[in-house]
Amino acid sequence: MRSAAVVASTLGLLVATAGSASAATSQSFVYHWSGSRPIAGEVWFNSANHNPAVGRNGFTIKDRMCGDGWFIAVKYRIGSGSWRWTSGISCSEINQSVAGNVARQTIQWRGCKISETDGLTECEGIRNDYVD
What we know:
The chain has 132 residues and is of the alpha+beta class. The protein has one helix at 2-21, and strands at 25-31, 39-46, 58-63, 70-78, 84-85, 93-97, 105-115, 121-123, 127-131. Strands 4, 5, 7, 8 and 9 form a five-stranded antiparallel β-sheet that branches. Strands 1-2-3-6 form a four-stranded antiparallel β-sheet, with no helix packed on it. The longest helix has 20 residues, at 2-21. Mean pLDDT is 81; it is low at 1-23.
């Protein structure tokens, strides 16, 4: 009976440790609006230091349809700040940090595609996450 309690207690600690160590990551596709809406790009937001390659609180931005005349970028704002843009990418993938070690705040963001010829911008819906 005592060994079962020790195992249960140890499992509880392992579950609690694994849960609290996990950081938020969210993802959004950027679609072409015509026809079957193929995926033009993909964006991941990595809260805190979830993806060290990105840097603290950063985006991974990937163009999934090379040569389509669009590049992929992210429009975002932290807290009640003004809207900003990440760097855009065409035919590749980039990582971009948008906030260092900061107090927990909301971040609103949306994946976008921007025409390489005339600057026309089309964005997906707004997503809400946290920077830490």
